[in-house]
Specification:
The protein is mostly helical. It contains two helices and no strands. The termini are far apart. Keywords: Membrane, Transmembrane, Transmembrane helix.
Amino acid sequence: MTFGLALLETEVQHALPIPAWGFGLIAFGILVIFLLITLSIGKGRRHS
């Protein structure tokens, strides 16, 4: 049991592959892309 736990502890990586602000920029970019897609789809439609 302890051998298995020791293997799990050695394989866990706590460092992110990119900095936290990088994730924020990527998330913001995805949100802007979704906003532009939504605006382009709804541009020609009239409201009921």
